[in-house]
Specification:
This is EGF-like domain-containing protein. Keywords: Membrane, Signal, Transmembrane, Transmembrane helix. By secondary structure, the protein is of the alpha+beta class. Strand 1 and strand 2 form a beta hairpin. Helix 1 runs antiparallel to helix 2.
Length: 199
């Protein structure tokens, strides 16, 4: 190039070491940005708190480890190939991951007939529904079973009361008897003592 008198030509050469030269993000693929390294050259890296260039979608990239994740979550590789901080198996509620479940009121994360219930601390526990007991089956007696059991107990209690009402006055009427005849008295006393315990 020929320049006229009084014109100076300055040629500036930019160092192109690294993957980019810090002129912006147009040189980087995906969502990566041109970042200056400690050595002074440019490198295409993911924005802060994202991993997996060039998409930069993940929460982490050290699979199976926890140092990039909060709380008790672990870096897990997703089917898409990037890392996501998730709770370890059979725990829910990131980042603490304390609970048995996180779908409150549902049963698909719980065993047997238990239901996911939110605790005062905010995480989910698999507990039996109201008026049922014994997780994970959470069984309850049917109305017929309860009715039969109650009727039988009332019958036995009434029978003991009647028998006791008949036997106790007889004890008061019995005269002092020689030792061999104490066998009947002992059996009656034993019965009354058992009857009192039952009531």
């Amino acid at each position: 190039m020929v320049l006229g008198p009084g014109h100076l030509l300055f040629i500036v050469t930019l160092p192109l070491t690294g993957t980019c030269d810090l002129r912006g993000t147009g040189q980087c693929g995906g969502k990566t940005q041109c970042t200056e390294t400690p050595q002074g050259f440019g490198e295409c890296t993911c924005p802060e708190n994202t991993y997996g260039p060039p998409e930069c979608l993940g929460d982490c990239d050290k699979f199976g480890e926890t140092e990039q994740c909060k709380g008790n979550t672990v870096c897990t590789k997703t089917p898409q190939g990037y890392g996501s901080c998730t709770c370890p198996e059979n725990t829910y509620g990131p980042p603490e991951c304390l609970g048995d479940c996180d779908k409150f009121g549902e049963t698909d994360q719980c065993k047997g007939n238990t239901v996911c219930t939110k605790t005062p601390q905010g995480y989910g526990l698999c507990t039996c529904p109201e008026n049922t007991y014994g997780p994970p089956e959470c069984l309850v007696m049917s109305i017929a079973e309860i009715s039969t059991t109650t009727t039988t107990e009332h019958f036995l209690r009434n029978l003991l009361l009647i028998y006791g009402a008949l036997v106790i006055p007889l004890l008061l009427l019995l005269p002092a008897a020689p030792p061999p005849s104490l066998t009947f008295t002992d059996s009656v006393i034993s019965f009354v003592e058992d009857w009192i315990k039952y009531i």
